[in-house]
Amino acid sequence: MLQEKTIAVIKATIPVLEVHGEAITRRFYERLFEAHPELLNVFNINNQRQGRQQAALANAVYAAAVHIEKLDAIIPVVKQIGAKHRSLGVLPEHYPIVGEHLLGAMRDVLQESATDEIIAAWAEAYGIIAQAFIDVEKEMYEEAVKQPGGWEGLRSFRIARRVKESDVIDSFYLEPLDQKPIASYQPGQYLTLQLKAPGVDYAQMRHYSLSDSPNKSYYRISVKREDERDATPGGLISRYIHSLAVGDTVEVAAPAGEFIIEENNHPLTLLSGGVGMTPFMSYLNTAAERLSNRSIVWIHAALNGDVHAFADESNQLAQRLANLTKRVVYERPTARDEQEKRFDAKGYITADVLREAGFRPDGLFYICGPESFMRAMYRLLTQLGVKEKNISFEFFGPASSIEAQAVAN
């Protein structure tokens, strides 16, 4: 428990964090990588370059300050981030390193405003928050190892099969080199791959949703190739994965993730954009195998049919699941899309599209796709009266506040 004096000091720093939060986190990462360049193996280079990791950490520090009187409020976020930490190999000994450089960054940026009292208060708070992460992650590490087919750290897998799903998305079927059983998972979870692309000094870790039902002899992930376009650089690692062939090996951490789409009797609506359909493919394949009679609405948005992955497989799922209502929305359909009537609506997912598909505001809603897509869907659902507690979302950039950004935009 934090002392009352500590709480008061930290709450007094909230206005400062609003102004200087990102400057502090930028300086933090500079200090961290200068002292410990080996940790570049853990962090996404693109997110660092684009400032997304710095902004996300600033949001997390700000949230900790706002909820400092009741840190239990951030436990769901701790579990979500903790799952990614476990898959990345973050260990208890890393937390003192992070604490040292975060406090050092506060001193560097705030200078004389960072009094000994403020630094001491944040040191005390950081110790409690870090311990919450360590405790949650300890359980996750133990679960990953002890489950049937589980393992510790990284395990070598062979690309056994590769399937082109669209112009930009390929599926990779991964089988363990040791030919031993592999851990099961829950629909919505992901694999973490460690990859060393040519010309890059450090290995990179990336998360990819599992896109098939569990309890098979392989894992399937489906990866979008992020090409360079306009002024936006391409995805270094996604392009590297697309250069791999059948027979190549990759290093893989055991399945993880808190975006779990559980089977129950609540009406379910799945909203996906682009490659964000992958966790829903896992769920729907699982539901079809279990002969689920749950009421499900699935609305998928894509640019057009050329980049729409799993079109045939999703149509087959719709035939197998009698209570599945599936709708496809293309932003800019091609002439072929128009001719073959490969979509149900043109433009974007709107309130009318939701209502036509059987919108139930009292149901459960899961969103996955680009961050801008999720902000738009979150805003739309809340405007239509859906309670925030009934909306779940997943994306693989740094942790961000989809809710706050949706309201602001």
How would you concisely characterize the structure shown here?
With 409 residues, the protein is an alpha/beta fold. Helices cover 43% and strands 19% of the residues.
Give structural notes.
Residues 1-138 form the Globin domain. With 409 residues, the protein is of the alpha/beta class. The chain has 3 domains: 4-146, Globin-like, CATH 1.10.490.10; 154-256, Translation factors (Elongation Factor Tu (Ef-tu), domain 3), CATH 2.40.30.10; 268-408, Rossmann fold (3-Layer(aba) Sandwich). The chain is built from 14 helices and 12 strands. The protein has a 6-stranded antiparallel sheet. Helix 9 (278-289) links the parallel strand 7 (268-273) and strand 8 (296-302). The longest helix has 31 residues, at 116-146.
Structural features:
409 residues; alpha/beta; Globin-like; Elongation Factor Tu (Ef-tu), domain 3; Rossmann fold; 3 domains; six-stranded antiparallel beta sheet; 14 helices; 12 strands; Flavohemoprotein; oxidoreductase; iron; heme; NAD
- Under CATH, the topology of the largest domain is which? Globin-like
The CATH architecture category of the largest domain equals Orthogonal Bundle
Q: By CATH's scheme, which homologous superfamily of the largest domain applies? A: Globins
Please count the beta strands (DSSP E, at least 2 residues each): 12
**Could you estimate the helical fraction of the residues in percent?**
40-55%
Low-confidence spans: 402-409
Quaternary state of this entry equals single chain
Number of domains: 3
Main beta-sheet annotation: 6 strands, antiparallel
Gross geometry: globular
- For the record, the CATH class of the largest domain is Mainly Alpha
- Secondary-structure-derived class: alpha/beta
* SSE succession: HHHHHHHEEEEEHEEHEHEHEHEHEH
Straight-line distance between termini = 37 Å
Computed Rg: 22 Å
Strand content: 15-25%
- Read across the widest sheet, the strand sequence of neighbours is 4-3-6-1-2-5
Number of helices: 14
The mean pLDDT is: 89
Keywords: Detoxification, FAD, Flavoprotein, Heme, Iron, Metal-binding, NAD, NADP, Oxidoreductase, Oxygen transport, Transport
Active site: 95, 137
Site (Involved in heme-bound ligand stabilization and O-O bond activation): 29
EC number: 1.14.12.17
